[in-house]
Specification:
Layout lengths: L8 E5 L6 H14 L6 E5 L5 H7 L5 E5 L16 H7 L3 E4 L2 H6 L4 H13 L3 E6 L3 H5 L3 H12 L5 H4 L3 E4 L13 H18 L2 H6 L2 E4 L7 H5 L6 E4 L6 H12 L1
Parallel strand pairs: 1-2, 1-8, 2-3, 3-4, 4-5, 5-6, 6-7, 7-8
Helix pairs in contact: 1-2, 1-12, 7-9
């Protein structure tokens, strides 16, 4: 069982939810509920919540992540945030290439690749999101789409660096829709991602990489999804905004 080689990683992606004071309240509620977690527990929060989030989780096992980062170190990029800024403020993980950024903000595999390399160079850990649209699944091109995203998003990332990358498989049709992929569908694609990584790097490297599932994961379906050999964790949207639900998913990863 190679799964035992990998630490489970449960990350909340808060998206554009929670003001700083609300972030403080939610993290204060979550912290005692997840204190005995075997899994790595992360909250990826809006930029303006990061400072208070880092302060609130001090002394707990919760790590703080950002929801994006720019690839340049500094300069004339109005409205953008650099990896150096994130690192200095206490961020450890950065979500990259989320389908909402691809869909609404012109994110491409090329820009995800630039961001991934910048995040790694800063000593932070990227959570690189991939996933097919409903139309692509219905056309039976899921594997082509996923392989293309993995290959392009990780282009030029060394075998040493890729060990610090978390991959999140998020079928776009399952995000925020209440339609979860079945555990079998999630396992099939996560296993395919690992095969693709083994071809790009080596089996040893592929076996060490954490692959999460995301898309309507909740306290009711987490145990079954996380029980699959190649599903090493979860990237959770809606359910991460409710302390008890998020904590229940973390507990499901302990089992
Ligand atoms: P939901 O859990 O709300 O479906 O969102 C999933 C997601 O996009 C996490 O990044």
């Amino acid at each position: 069982m190679n799964k035992t080689l990998r630490k489970a990683v449960i990350a909340g992606n808060w998206k554009m939810n929670k003001t700083p004071s609300e972030a403080k309240a939610l993290l204060t509620e979550i912290a005692p509920l997840v204190k005995d977690a075997e899994a790595e527990v992360i909250a990826c929060v809006p930029y303006v919540d990061i400072a208070v989030a880092v302060e609130t989780v001090k002394g707990t096992n919760i790590k703080i992540g950002a929801e994006n980062a720019h690839w340049e170190e500094k300069g004339a990029f109005t409205g953008e945030i650099s990896t150096g800024m994130l690192k200095e403020i206490g961020v450890e993980y950065v979500v990259l290439g989320h389908s909402e950024r691809r869909q609404y903000f012109g994110e491409t595999d090329e820009t995800v690749n630039l961001r991934t390399k910048a995040v790694l160079a800063a000593g932070l850990k990227p959570i690189v999101c991939v996933g097919e649209l409903l139309k692509e699944r219905e056309t039976n091109i899921t594997q082509e789409v996923i392989a293309r995203q993995i290959k392009l998003d990780l282009l030029g990332v060394s075998a040493e660096d890729v060990k610090n990358v978390v991959i999140a498989y998020e079928p776009v049709w399952a995000i925020g829709t209440g339609k979860t992929a079945t555990a079998e569908q999630a396992e099939e694609v996560c296993a395919f991602i690992r095969e693709t990584l083994a071809k790009l790097y080596s089996k040893e490297v592929a076996d060490s990489i954490t692959i999460q599932y995301g898309g309507s994961m909740n306290d009711g379906n987490a145990a079954e999804l996380l029980g699959k050999e190649n599903v090493d964790g979860g990237l959770i949207g809606g359910a991460s905004l409710v302390a008890e639900k998020f904590a229940a998913i973390v507990s499901a990863a302990n089992a």
